[in-house]
UniProtKB/TrEMBL annotation:
It comes from Leucothrix pacifica. Its EC number is 1.17.7.3. This is 4-hydroxy-3-methylbut-2-en-1-yl diphosphate synthase (flavodoxin). SUPFAM superfamilies: Nitrite and sulphite reductase 4Fe-4S domain-like. The gene is ispG. InterPro entries: Dihydropteroate_synth-like_sf, IspG_bac, IspG_bac-typ, IspG_C, IspG_TIM, NO2/SO3_Rdtase_4Fe4S_sf. The lineage of its organism: Bacteria, Pseudomonadati, Pseudomonadota, Gammaproteobacteria, Thiotrichales. Coiled coil: none annotated.
Amino acid sequence: MQTIQRHKTVPVSIDHVVVGGNAPVVVQSMTNTDTADVVRTVKQVAELAKAGSELVRITVNNMESAEAVPEIRERLDKMNCSVPLVGDFHFNGHKLLTAVPECAQALAKFRINPGNVGRGLKRDEQFASMIEFACRYDKAVRIGVNWGSLDQELLASMLDDNAKLAKPRDLLAVQHDALIESALGSAQKAESYGLAHDKIIISCKLSGVQGLIHAYRDLASRCDYPLHLGLTEAGMGSKGIVASTAALSVLLQEGIGDTIRISLTPEPGAPREKEVVVGQEILQSMGLRSFTPQVVACPGCGRTSSEYFQHLAEDIQSYLRHQMPVWKSDYPGVESMSVAVMGCVVNGPGESKHANIGISLPGNGEKPVAPVYEDGEKTVTLKGEHIAEEFQVLVNQYVERTYSPKV
Ligand code: SF4
């Protein structure tokens, strides 16, 4: 198998989580609760962490939310949820940290958007003040540039310079340079204010796939700060998932990216954890990390006798994910297990043989039996009304037998 050569970056510690260096690519997420609502925010952070988010960002946009942060941290600690919290600041971060230093203390990292720090002369002063807090409390900082809130003064000055060239470049090219300059120039400034090189992470988010790939390739060629990847405003449903996957896969394949966040817009009422699951699935599909056993299922076709096998595939996938919090500690290595659920015997046995454990359900006109394969060998043939339940028992037995720690 082709191995991916990771772009070299310096490791940055965010409490107990390391981003960059040789650390595995970290999955992170962001809450959408009002941070001042401590109960709802704690609940959502805990849910995201339970789903596998290794860092969780919360917005800190006003005094009430800044005051809530220490209590959020305290309550999470009491629940044994140690996920590091990242504070997302815009415009008034310097004021909030000055007024509520306990907020700075409780956070593990600050996200600063150089386009939203302030205007005119105040900009540098306010940015310097945020960096001072990071230095004083020994916190990491993400310089998070966003296409939608690009530093307009920087862009205007770069456009002026461009206009003076004999052959001015097009607007998009100048905007691209302004994004990169905003990120790297701000990081340089942060270092000049005393922030250590290994306390800085960079992101440059765009909502277009090609623009994002271009920006990150450029960043990676020009710095060794760890890079936070994410397509901003990715969108809802399959569009958001596909666009994020397309952009991130290209970059990850080139070894670019040390932490990822999938910015999905959840459908009303849908769980926020979906963005964590998608992030994990991108990394696992690419062979970069393993989080949960994967189900290989065929798409079904005219040979599939009913929706039975679709339900079985879905039930098994959600059962495996549900079991993972316990299995992770009891059965090391189980996260790389593969389970095949196939709709008939055309490809079923072959695919089952490649999986750790697999089942082929009977297709149209086939004998109503379901052969099961374990480690490439046919072990049993299930039949009757309770194939699903019996297969689940077999999966459990396989896990216990294969992944129990050797004594
Ligand atoms: S394995 Fe069988 S049911 Fe599934 S897609 Fe292939 S032919 Fe159709």
